[in-house]
């Protein structure tokens, strides 16, 4: 896969020449973000506000990021070209954004180049891309989760259905669309026949009831450092109706999981699987994001993701105090424990709310290519975190389902929400829609 050892050796040499005497967080880091959606926009945005960071490259990025970062129109899985870019641009730190790239083994490929990498190996990343692996690991580590059964295909799962409600999940990656909470056997049958679930192995799960929260943590082997908790809205329709999506909006802090409980929960619900992975000889280095549910029996894990949440990153990264680039470098170099011992991670008390502006058709096949109007009219305190936009001539046009996450900041969730919706109203194109009830239950925070 690599063009010999020459490029990794060159990179190592460059880093050696540049590193002596450089204090952690000293200016001059050359960074690379892989991916091109709203989460990667949030990562690049946080790097842009870091004193330690000199340059930000994003592959492939999108039109919005091109304003403050260098975007490169190339395939992030073309390892040969990626190596050449890393060497030529003297990259110090790479952050892998999307789950598909983790599952394609980008973490392993990048680590061979001797730069600092935030993103797990393909093997450790199985916690996201194989639901059965995640469930087995939770059983081994004693992490509470829904009871479950795995099936090699949809037909054998259909044969095992009972009368009652059941959760039907595709075993592999499905862009947030491979989960159906079925009320009865008929709904479960039709879920098993749907395009995103019918191919490949399937998990049937007990339906859990309760409030949900998203908890992300930086994980460096056995070290687990919680990030600000958030809450997202996965269903496409008002009042949490309709099919699941990648996420229609999010907010942080979240009333259901206060900031001061984040580390304790991460110690109970994320650290045990990090330890189990380390014991297996496949330590995790990157971000683990746990989807949690607060049942009458206490918090349980719905799923793990091997990356920042999207849109959780959009509302949590702005709340991380200190130099984000230096923090990511420490994680990527395997010295997170020492770094946070000296500089404990603090969350700002500001609140952030994100609202996803979507193209007609999403979460099915979206209409794309529409010219986006109003980007210049955002109110004070609101940002447009682009997720699927591209430049055509002088215009910015839509290029996917979730197009822009409008992020509002404020002293309270209510303030942040007001600003986010003022911004959402300003930006439009034919067919754009958004949920108007994002963070409605969080306004007391
Ligand atoms: P996941 O991708 O596994 O997080 O599932 C997406 C959404 O489906 C979750 O945010 C929940 O709303 C719902 N869900 C997943 N698993 C369960 C479960 N066992 N019980 C109830 N709801 C679930
Ligand atoms: N917010 C859902 C996800 O990132 O999977």
Query: What profile does the largest beta sheet have?
Result: 5 strands, parallel
What sort of overall outline do the alpha carbons produce when their principal axes are compared?
globular
- Name every ligand kind in the structure: adenosine monophosphate, glycine
Lateral arrangement of strands in the main beta sheet: 3-2-1-4-5
Describe this structure in words.
Strands 3-2-1-4-5 form a 5-stranded parallel sheet. A hairpin with an 8-residue loop joins β7 and β8. The protein is globular, with a radius of gyration of 21 Å. The chain is built from 15 helices and 22 strands. About 2% of the residues have low confidence. The protein has 4 domains: 105 residues, 3-Layer(aba) Sandwich (Rossmann fold); 58 residues, 2-Layer Sandwich (Dna Ligase, domain 1); 134 residues, ATP-grasp fold, B domain (D-amino Acid Aminotransferase, Chain A, domain 1, 2-Layer Sandwich), CATH 3.30.470; 92 residues, Phosphoribosylglycinamide synthetase, C-terminal domain (Glycinamide Ribonucleotide Synthetase, Chain A, domain 4, Alpha-Beta Complex), CATH 3.90.600.10. With 445 residues, the chain is an alpha+beta fold. The termini are far apart. 51% of the residues are buried. Helix content is 28%, strand content 26%. The protein binds adenosine monophosphate (AMP) and glycine. Glycine (GLY) binds next to loops.
């Amino acid at each position: 896969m690599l063009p010999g050892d020459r490029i990794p050796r060159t990179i190592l040499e460059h880093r050696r020449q540049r590193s002596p005497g450089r204090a952690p967080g000293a200016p001059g880091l050359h960074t690379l973000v892989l991916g091109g959606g709203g989460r990667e926009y949030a990562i690049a945005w946080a790097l842009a506000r870091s004193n330690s960071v000199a340059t930000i490259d994003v592959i492939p990025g999108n039109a919005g990021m091109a304003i403050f970062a260098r975007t490169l129109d190339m395939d992030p899985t073309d390892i040969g070209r990626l190596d050449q870019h890393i060497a030529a641009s003297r990259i110090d730190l790479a952050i892998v954004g999307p789950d598909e790239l983790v599952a394609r083994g980008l973490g392993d490929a990048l680590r061979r180049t001797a730069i600092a990498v935030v993103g797990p190996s393909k093997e450790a990343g199985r916690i996201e891309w194989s639901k059965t692996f995640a469930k087995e690991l939770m059983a081994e580590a004693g992490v509470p989760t829904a009871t479950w059964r795995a099936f090699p295909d949809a037909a054998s799962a259909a044969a095992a259905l009972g009368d009652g409600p059941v959760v039907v999940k595709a075993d592999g990656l499905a862009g947030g669309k491979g989960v159906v909470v079925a009320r009865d056997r008929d709904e479960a049958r039709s879920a098993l026949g749907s395009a995103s679930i019918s191919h490949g192995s399937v998990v049937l799960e007990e339906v859990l009831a309760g409030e949900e929260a998203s908890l992300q943590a930086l994980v460096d082997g056995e070290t687990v450092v919680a990030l600000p908790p958030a809450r997202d809205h996965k269903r496409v329709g008002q009042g949490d109706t309709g099919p699941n999506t990648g996420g229609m909006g999010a907010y942080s802090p979240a009333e259901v999981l206060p900031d001061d409980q984040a580390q304790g929960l991460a110690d109970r619900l994320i650290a045990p699987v990090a330890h189990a992975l380390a014991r297996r000889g496949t330590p995790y280095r990157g971000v683990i994001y746990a989807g949690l549910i607060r049942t009458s029996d206490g918090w349980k894990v719905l799923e793990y993701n091997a990356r920042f949440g999207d849109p959780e990153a959009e509302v949590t990264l702005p709340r991380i105090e200190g130099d984000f680039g230096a923090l990511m470098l420490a994680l990527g170099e395997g010295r997170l424990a020492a770094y946070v011992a000296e500089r404990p991670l603090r969350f700002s008390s500001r609140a952030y709310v994100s609202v996803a502006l979507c193209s007609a058709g999403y979460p099915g096949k979206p209409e794309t290519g529409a010219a986006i109007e109003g980007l210049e009219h955002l109110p004070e305190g609101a940002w447009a975190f682009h997720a699927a936009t591209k430049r055509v001539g002088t215009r910015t046009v839509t290029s996917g389902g979730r197009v822009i996450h409008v992020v509002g900041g404020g002293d309270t969730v209510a303030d942040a929400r007001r600003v986010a919706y003022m911004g959402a109203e300003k930006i439009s194109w034919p067919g754009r829609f958004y949920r108007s009830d994002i963070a409605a239950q969080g306004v007391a925070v």
